[in-house]
Specification:
- This protein is of the alpha/beta class.
- It folds into three domains: 65 residues, no CATH class; 222 residues, Malonyl-Coenzyme A Acyl Carrier Protein, domain 2 (3-Layer(aba) Sandwich); 59 residues, 2-Layer Sandwich (Alpha-Beta Plaits).
- It has 17 helices and twelve strands.
- A four-stranded antiparallel beta sheet has the order 1-2-4-3, with helices on both faces. Strands 6-5-11-12 form a four-stranded parallel beta sheet, with helices on both faces. A four-stranded antiparallel beta sheet has the order 8-9-7-10, with helices on one face.
- The N and C termini lie close together (6 Å).
Length: 411
């Protein structure tokens, strides 16, 4: 693998310059100033470092370098995306390098629930008709277990390099992945619940208008004001960030609302999901999913994990976790509250473990404090997969964690 990581540290900027000149890439997380580089054949490390030092900020990120001059960060959380982040061949390059039986196990469980083709064949293809494949993957019964599988696999690979969460949080479906991350359910139970959740939600909207979801680039109070003034039959489905929130409703009502929001100079974006989640339109999935949850034994979380329904951490009571997870289907996702809960608990590094970087962007909009850091394992949507993953390790290194850089460089 041609993407290598180098770290260098010192108690002064000049000290790092001297070490780079001497080709001394030694690193100690106890030093006051820490830098990490993605190594390539064309690197001029000294030039990159000196250019970055023209910026006096405590944290500086360039295309191939991270520089941090602050105190070590103590706690990090994993963020797990929900439906809408799926895309064909997500995580493929990482999957091909880090072989695992995750995918074989997931195929068997998914087949038992859905009686369809293998889950992996829905995600990965060499077919040139990507649009058709994407439409099939976007179907609720496929998208949820697919995103869950890839997100869980990313966590598995992060663990190989000594990157573990101190807390976890998920968005909508991603809350199930967060509970898996926290040890509440094992992998087989996770894939079963992911497949079952997707199936009952898809079945609940068959034969009728399943509705749509639309992200609106506006503070929530302005959205609510327009909904009330225009008598729109919409539900605030996701409290995503101070700048972006999501509404759910019947398909024609969403189309109508899109024009009305445009009239108010607000941009609306129809989401790539197959129903109006977190609204009364999916209420028929509530009882079937609740019955499925009752059959699974939940353990107490090994790390704190947030609830979309309450906005706070789940407590250790298994029945209460199931109750909130079930309520989540028809209740708003309080993701902004989740992020603030994590921040108030001391979390400062947020790693999105899953496809795309939707939650990374929402987090940056929500926590504007200078000492909050957000990064995704898939910043480029698979275009530069290894570089994306290496950047996560680079950031963890300069913030004072202990990623196994040696193991990465030996790949």
């Amino acid at each position: 693998m041609n993407i290598k990581i180098l770290g260098v540290s010192s108690d002064s900027i000049e000290g790092i310059k001297t070490k780079i000149k001497n080709n001394d890439f030694s690193f100690s997380k106890t030093d006051k100033i820490k830098a990490s580089f993605l190594k390539s054949e064309t690197n001029d490390f000294l030039k990159e470092f000196e250019s970055a030092c023209e910026n006096t900020d405590e944290f500086i990120k360039t295309e191939n370098m991270f520089l941090y001059k602050g105190k070590n960060i103590e706690k990090k959380a994993f963020l797990f995306p929900g439906q809408g982040s799926q895309y064909v061949n997500m995580g493929k390059e990482i999957k091909d390098i880090f072989q695992s039986d995750f995918f074989e196990k997931a195929d068997e469980i998914f087949n038992n629930v859905s009686s369809k083709k293998d889950l992996t064949s829905l995600i990965y293809t060499n077919d040139e008709d990507i649009k058709r494949h994407q439409e099939e993957l976007t179907n609720t019964e496929n998208a949820q277990p697919a995103i869950g599988l890839v997100s869980a696999f990313y966590q598995y690979v992060l663990a190989k390099f000594n990157i573990f969460p101190n807390a976890s949080s998920g968005h909508s479906f991603g809350e199930l992945t967060a509970l898996y991350s926290a040890g509440v359910i094992d992998f087989e139970e996770f894939i079963f619940l992911s497949s079952s959740r997707g199936k009952v939600m898809a079945e609940s909207s068959k034969g009728k208008d399943a509705g749509k979801m639309m992200a609106v680039l506006s503070p929530i109070d302005k959205i609510e004001k327009i909904i009330n003034e225009e008598n729109l039959e919409l539900t605030i489905a996701n409290h995503n960030s101070p700048k972006q929130n999501v509404v759910s409703g019947k398909s024609d009502e969403i189309e109508k609302a899109s024009k009305i929001f445009r009239k108010h100079k607000l941009r609306g974006i129809i989401l790539p999901v197959s129903a109006a989640f977190h609204s009364p339109l999916v209420k028929d999935a509530l009882n079937p999913f609740t019955e499925i949850l009752e059959k699974i034994n939940f353990s107490s979380p090994k790390i704190p994990v947030t609830s979309n329904t309450t906005g706070n951490f789940h407590n250790s009571n298994a029945d209460k976790i199931k109750e909130n997870l079930s309520k989540q289907l028809t209740n708003p996702v309080l993701f902004t509250n989740n992020l603030n809960t994590l921040y108030n608990d001391g979390i400062r590094l947020f790693i999105e473990s899953g496809p795309k970087k939707v939650l990374t962007d929402l987090g940056k909009q929500t926590l504007l404090q200078n000492n909050s850091f957000f990064i995704s394992v898939d910043e480029s949507n698979g275009k530069e997969a290894l570089k994306d993953f290496a950047k996560v390790l680079c950031l963890c290194l300069v913030l004072g964690f202990d990623p196994d850089i040696k193991k990465w460089n030996e790949l």
